[in-house]
Amino acid sequence: MRILVTGAAGMLGTSLVPVLRANDHSVLATDINTSDPNIERLDVRLIADVMRFAEKFRPEIIMHLAAETDLETCEQRRDYAYQENFIGTQNACVACRHLGIPITYISTAGVFDGMKTEPYTEFDEPNPINVYGASKFEGERVVRDTIPEHYIVRAGWMVGGGEKDKKFVSKIIAQLDRGAKTLHAVNDRFGTPTYAPAFSKVLEKLTRTRYYGTYHLACMGRWSGR
Ligand SMILES: NC(=O)c1ccc[n+]([C@@H]2O[C@H](COP(=O)([O-])OP(=O)(O)OC[C@H]3O[C@@H](n4cnc5c(N)ncnc54)[C@H](OP(=O)(O)O)[C@@H]3O)[C@@H](O)[C@H]2O)c1
Prior knowledge:
alpha/beta, seven-stranded parallel beta sheet, 7 helices, binds NADP nicotinamide-adenine-dinucleotide phosphate
């Protein structure tokens, strides 16, 4: 398939793009961050740019990863968070409608309130409790409302991003680099680890099935962190 990937320079995109290419897909990797010369600059908040890339590349599916994923930034800059996670997703949907193609939207366990002690399933009602979760949930809504042929795939806490990891693992490594003798980690929040390379392989397979819908995709187990 011809696949347009947004947010390709991030933690998940760095795993996903090679997996897609290894499976003979033709991939146009885009991101707002173009430190990698193989990635073309596309800011998903700009509808004209999204449409221009869509027209030029004529993808058969858009895999929409681009997002503001930093929880604190989302809390502090609410409008920006919605531009990133809602408007950016709406723009990807407009391009998909225009071309008549499906969308893969990566969502998050953060659409839930965390009150359940068991793992969340696809049948549980979202109830986001922070701006990141709420803005990602609005992204889910616009995907459901506008593109019937969608894969909404909710990930747990991502690990395995190597140098691109900005989350738990990188925070622990940063402490070690600073010579910390005591490591500080969150111990009152629990989630399911999601190994980015494994997630990418399953996502590639799912994207070929045409079994559209909402999926929870994570690894086994439970941990505290963030
Ligand atoms: N990491 C997790 O634990 C986790 C869990 C569940 C779901 N997800 C979802 O999985 C997807 C990928 O996450 P990730 O972990 O790979 O996050 P990430 O490392 O932050 O990657 C996101 C990428 O999108 C880019 N981006 C931000 N705004 C953009 C824009 N307006 N236009 C184009 N690109 C933009 C970012 O660039 P900058 O770095 O320059 O901002 C970054 O390269 C996201 O949709 C996220 O919500 C992540």
